[in-house]
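A reminder before we start the practical. When you read a complex entry, don't treat the lines as separate problems. The point of joint prediction is that each chain is placed relative to the others, so the output describes one connected object in space. Small molecules and nucleic acid strands, if listed, are placed in the same frame. In the example below there are two entries. Take a minute to note the order of the lines before looking further.
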Amino acid sequence: MTLTRIYRFAASHRLHTSVFSDDKNAEIFGKCNNPYGHGHDYVLQVSVEGAPDPLTGRILPVADLDRYVQRQAVSVYDHSDLNRDVPGFEGVPTTENLGRDVLRRLQTDWPFAEVRLTRVAIQETDRNSIAIDKG
Amino acid sequence: MLITRKAEFSASHRCYNPSLSEQQNLDLYGERAESHGHGHNYVLEVTLEGEPDSVTGMVVDLKLLKEVIQECVVDPMDHRHLNHEVPPFDRVTPTAENLAREIWRRLEPALRFDHARLHNVRLYETGDLFVDYNEALS
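Here is the predicted structure of the whole assembly.
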């Protein structure tokens, strides 16, 4: 059985890499490359898989998951600049790389022994989202 | 091919396990264990997997699917207190997890078709929390 919990955070970013020239960046990333960046209200879905505890009927205490995701991920990203404010973020802060960063952060100290983190999905806008299934 | 039909029902529940003490229930479930319960507008998504019939072009008759969901889930649960009025939740804590499993048990026998089978039950307890259940995968 899978339980999915939804979180929200607001952050700014600019899609730009020093590997390319300014012209090439503008060509590849379009308006996402505008110099001062822009922001999104991201919607994060975290899915976990496990069997409900026979006593509690819950896969895990949702309040504990909330506290963990808040500490590891949401508080790091919320009202921050993804290009400058997130330690250890690798690559251009696309939604794809943000998904990888979320997964990395959630896996780091995963405290729920009997419960598996199975998927991280991020909606950047209503028309644009990614999902990473953890193999 | 997957096809999904959505339904809604409103019900009250109390996260409470009768085999535990009042204090243990409060420690486990917090305010969700308060004695008179509280309610949710549950949203149910029922997904079938199958191939469209070569003549009708339909995986399943959606009107029939709607009637099955109505009869098996919405009629018995809508505007009810799950703990008091909907077995087995007099004995089993009506968490979203247990509710999704019970909904699967009620729907699956009624959704065995030549070309389609129940594939997934997704139950939203709130806009920010949902559970997916497939008996074979759980």
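Discuss with your neighbour: The longest strand of chain B covers residues 38-50. What might explain this?
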